[in-house]
Amino acid sequence: MRRLALLLLTAAVLLALPKMVGTAGLPARVTDLLGAEQAQRDRAVVVRVTDGDTLEVRLPNGSEKDVRILGIDTPEVYPQLECGGQEATAAMARLAPVGSEVVLVSDPTQGNRDRYGRLLRYVHSSGDDLGLAQLRSGRAQVYIFRDDPLQRAGDYRAAERRARKADRGSWAACWR
């Protein structure tokens, strides 16, 4: 009987905790357990690699959408070519080749679309986080819109620090 009472008390605390303290400061795995808003996941097929942080994808319903990868920024290739832009785009093309299947994952702490109407999503291919891969290779920098931290900010910042310290990718040639 004591175990049942303890179990019920624990469950009640876990259910009430998000309402009492909020979930913004809690790690994603904890907020998942506490019932915080879940990320939306959609499968898609890559139609085009626009640049190092943007893809065009086809959703299962046949619609095509532009996707801006959350949490990263890579050098531009359009309208003007920036140092490292071609390399970041080529790296993304290797990570997400045209015709490959990707999983788009929303971040409940962020908006659904950017000012250009692009979907804001983390993108996974074969289980790998492509934004994190770009950061690890030194082809991207962490980008957090209006200093509104995203769920993966800690991991992303750590990957960027390691790439910068190792002088990988654009850290060697473009960013000093």
Description:
- The protein has 176 residues and is an alpha+beta fold.
- It folds into 2 domains: 2-34, no CATH class; 41-173, Beta Barrel (OB fold (Dihydrolipoamide Acetyltransferase, E2P)).
- The chain contains 6 helices and 8 strands.
- It has helices at residues 2-21, 28-34, 85-95, 130-136, 153-165, 170-173, and strands spanning 41-51, 54-58, 64-69, 72-73, 101-105, 119-125, 128-129, 141-142.
- The strands form 2 sheets. The protein has a 5-stranded mixed barrel with strand order 1-2-3-6-5.
- Strand 2 (54-58) and strand 3 (64-69) form a beta hairpin.
- Helix 4 (130-136) runs parallel beside helix 5 (153-165).
- The relative contact order is 0.15.
Number of domains as seen in the coordinates: 2
Based on CA inertia axes, which overall geometry fits? globular
Rg estimate, integer Å? 19 Å
Poorly predicted parts: 17-35
Structural class by secondary-structure content: alpha+beta
Give the helices and strands as they follow along the chain. HHEEEEHEEEHEHH
CATH class of the largest domain, anyone? Mainly Beta
Explain briefly what this protein structure is:
This protein has 176 residues and is of the alpha+beta class.
Name a few traits of the molecule.
two-stranded antiparallel ribbon; alpha+beta; 5-stranded mixed beta barrel; single chain; 2 domains; 8 strands; OB fold (Dihydrolipoamide Acetyltransferase, E2P); 176 residues
